[in-house]
Amino acid sequence: MNTFFSLYQNIGWSLTGLVLMAFLLAGTVKGVIGMGLPTVAMGLLGVAMLPTQAAALLLIPSTFTNLWQLAAGGHLRSSLKRLWPLLAMIAVGTGLGSYVLGMDGAHSMGRALGGALFIYALCGLFLPTLKVPPRAEPWLGPLCGLITGLITSATGVFVIPAVPYIQGLGLDRNQLVQALGLSFTVSSLALGAGLFWNGALGGAEMSASLLAVVPALIGMMLGQWLRQRISAVVFKRVFFIGMGLLGLHLLISG
User: Fold this and answer.
1) Radius of gyration of the CA atoms of the chain, in A
2) pLDDT for 1
3) Are the C-beta atoms of residues 53 and 76 closer than 8 Å to each other?
4) Which residues lie below 8 Å from residue 71, measured CB to CB, with a gap of 6+?
5) Can you tell me the distance from the alpha carbon of 164 to that of 149, in angstroms, rounded to the nearest whole number?
6) How far apart are CA 230 and CA 244, in angstroms?
7) pTM of the model
C-alpha cells in the first residue's frame, strides 16, 4: 500500500490536492462538453510539475474515460473504417516525436504545452467549424494525425488538429462523440508508450494515475448533471477563455 501511494507521498499534500482538484475539474468539463479532460488536466498540472509527470498521471484517467465514451456511441465499426488513416498516423506521429524529440526538456515542454493550449483556445473561440470535403479525407486525415501525434509527444495534449478535423466530417452527435473517444483512446495509448519508452512511466506513476481515476469519474458525473442545467455554448466559451489564459501563463513562465 505504501508503494501504491508513494508518488503522492513524495510530492506532498498541497500538490496532491492540486492533482485531485485538477482531475475533478477536468472530469467535470468532459462531462459537460464531451471532451477536455487531458487538456484541462495537463494545463493545470503543468503549472506545478513537469509535463512528463503530468502526462503520466493523465494516462489511466484519460484512457478509462475515453473507453467509456467510446463504448457509448454504437458506431465503432464505421468510425474505425473512416478514421483509421488518422488514427494510424496519430500513433506514428507520437512514436516518432517521442523518439526524436524525447520528453525530458522541462522548459521546452512547458512552453510547447502553453502554446498548444493558447492556439487551441483561439481556434475554439474565433474559428468557424472546419468543413472537410470527402475528397480531402484521404490526405488530410493522415496529415492531421501525424501533426496531432507530434504535438502529443511534445505537450501531452492531443486535440490539435485532430478535434477540428473530426468535427468537420459532418458526423451526427453520437458518431462525433464516439469518433472523438476513439481518437483520444489511440492518443492516450500512444502517449503511454512514448512515456514508457523515455523512462517516465513506472510503477509509482501508474499507481498514482490509477488513483486519479476517482476524481475524474466524480467530475464526469457532476458534469453530466450540470449539462442539463447550464448552456453548453456559454460553458464552452468560458472553457476556451480559461484555456487561453492558462496557455498564455505557461508560455510566459515556461
Assistant:
1) 17
2) 45
3) no
4) none
5) 15
6) 22
7) 0.81
Mean of pLDDT over the chain? 82
Asked if 108 and 238 touch (Cβ cutoff 8 Å), the reply is no
Which three cell numbers, joined as nine digits, stand for 170? 459532418
| Residues present in the chain in total | 254
Note the pLDDT tens digit of each residue in 124-146: 888 777 789 999 999 999 999 99
Kindly state the cell numbers that stand for 252: 510566459
Query: Mean pLDDT across the stretch 95-122?
Result: 74
CA atoms within 13 A on the CB side of 199: 2
- Please compute, for residue 30, the number of CA atoms within 13 A of its CA located in the half-sphere on the CB side: 32
Cell numbers describing residue 211: 488513483
CA–CA gap between residue 172 and residue 163 (Å, rounded): 15
In the numeric block, which cell numbers belong to residue 77?
465499426
- Cα gap 141→86, rounded to integer Å: 5
* 97 Rama class: left (phi>0) / alpha (psi -120 to 50) / beta: alpha
Of 162, 120, 167, the C-alpha closest to 143 is: 162
E strand residue ranges, 150-204: none
CA distance 38 to 194: 16
Tell me which residue of 152, 149, 105 sits closest to 254, measured CA to CA.
Answer: 105
Show contacts of 16-24: CB within 8 Å, 24+ apart.
18/44, 18/45, 18/48, 19/45, 19/57, 19/208, 19/212, 20/212, 20/215, 21/215, 23/61, 23/212, 23/215, 23/216, 23/219, 24/215, 24/216, 24/218, 24/219, 24/222
